[in-house]
Write the structure tokens for this entry.
Amino acid sequence: MADTVPLFDLAHVQKAGATVSLDKLQWFHNHYWKRALATEAGCEELARTALPFVERALAQFDADAAVAGEEEGVVMAASTAPDLSDAGAAATAAAATGTPVDAPVRYQRVLTRDPRRDRRALLLALKTTRDHPCLLSEFPAAAMFAWARPALSNASGARARSCKESFWVTAQDAAAAAAAAAAAAVVDAAVAAAAAGGKKGKKAAAAVVPTREVLGEARALILSLPAPVFDEFGVETLVNELKTLAKRLGVGLKDLYMPLRFALSGGLAGPGVADQLCAVGREEAVARIDAALDVFRE
């Protein structure tokens, strides 16, 4: 902004055809947000600017937590600032027409890290927004997963329910499902061969992944990595390690990332899993995986 002020001159301003593009404004916001996060000095400045928003949001969270039931969980209020962009208008229209959306994540009442007192917790949470810039008023809700555990037993929404159900899948369940799918494929192949015109059989059903075992392996991997990988935001290292793990287990990255993300944050969207691991920290990540497997124990 300081560089722009000397360049401004009313003589160069034209009122003909003037428009205000909020989408363009959002683009500039995202550009400078990402640029700030690219340097330590920029991160510190952004943290200083974001802190008052975090303090107000967490004060409300504390007040809500004081009256919430132990098993109820607390919803972090999203920004109250209106979204006037084209995307915001589309989202508003979808809500008005009853288009299904995932329910908000509920969090346990006690913070695991308090960014009001722990500067590192605030900085790590800010770094998770590098690929998903947000308004300062939206940042506390977007980063809440880094400071509080999700109340997984209260997770709702169609996608969340589907992910919850997958926590009961064991290696035995997956093997039985694979055997059934193989048998069905043989039948389909025979039917297709006998059909006139050589029509193809049905597409094979997706493999059933033993989520509990996959999460157990992810837990072991996380414990095996040195703490500085997490504390110093070693996202690239974590991504490579997770890819290697998925390949070794013979599962797709989605089959590893989805339940791991759900265990860490209670949601199925947001920052990358490696980013979330860094923001949460090694010990807390392991504790959340344990809590998820315990909540959804057979």
In short: The chain has a mean pLDDT of 80.
